[in-house]
Amino acid sequence: MYPYFGYETRCRQVPLTFPPQHQNIQPGLEYLMNPIPISDNPEYKGSGKLKGKIAIITGGDSGIGRAVAIGFAKEEADMAIVYLYEREDAEATKQMVEHYGQRCLLIEGDLRRPAFSSEVVKKTLAHYGKLDVLILNQGVQFPQESIADISDEQLEDTFRTNIFPHFYLTKAALPYLKPGSSIISTASVTAYAGAPLLVDYSSTKGALVSFTRSLALQLVSRCIRVNAVAPGPIWTPLIVSSYSAEYVKTFGLESPMKRAGQPFELAPTYIYLASDDSSYVTGQVLHVNGGIMTET
């Protein structure tokens, strides 16, 4: 177990580093990482905040999505998890959700295809009969030293993965969302602080901030809330599949807490935004980034 339990250990500001490692395909496989990201906080006890709710979680097989799935299960929600190809990770997440007594439908496919988003919503409705929460969490990033190195193919892939499915899935889900429903996106600290190696990725995350604010205003009269979470450096498969092994060794040390966050440290923020605890919160981006100061 990597040293993140309990709270005092997490806040010591002692630099925590990772062994050098790299995976050659995105968005990466969690079961191959060393150490495995921590998705489940044993100290977190659910209290039925999401009892009876049905959620779709994209990128729910690993990383932040897996942590959200586990947190939602502890709060008594059932869910559909959408993933690209990471079947072993997805099956492991399903087992974790079922361990906490909740149902988990796995849906494999490519969210860059508009028709697949409609398929996701139809399968979820056929399985559960309703939909309450949409977690839009899929993403890729391809670091480049210069904008000149961002090919047309990379630019299109980054936008088609990181932002287009937000429109596709929201359009497909909206007819079935009732008052009290929530749409929650995963933005990024890079939308605010910038990132010299991630010009295209940061641009998509900035688009998600505007998407969140504008859609919130559009749907407020329907009592559907739209918010986002902006993580800082978090230890997920996306990191080892996009950065070099040498870069991974120091990942997260730039944060004031001198470490990367673990996925479980974000889950309560998504739970809050999906629950009635945040009934007066819409159009907002909540920052979970280890103390990095940003302009909101």
From TrEMBL:
GO molecular function: oxidoreductase activity, acting on CH-OH group of donors
Assigned keywords, A-Z: Oxidoreductase
Superkingdom of the source species: Bacteria
A Pfam match: adh_short_C2
Presence of keyword Oxidoreductase: yes
CDD domains linked to this entry: SDR_c1
Similarity comment text for this entry: Belongs to the short-chain dehydrogenases/reductases (SDR) family.
Record-given protein name: NAD(P)-dependent oxidoreductase
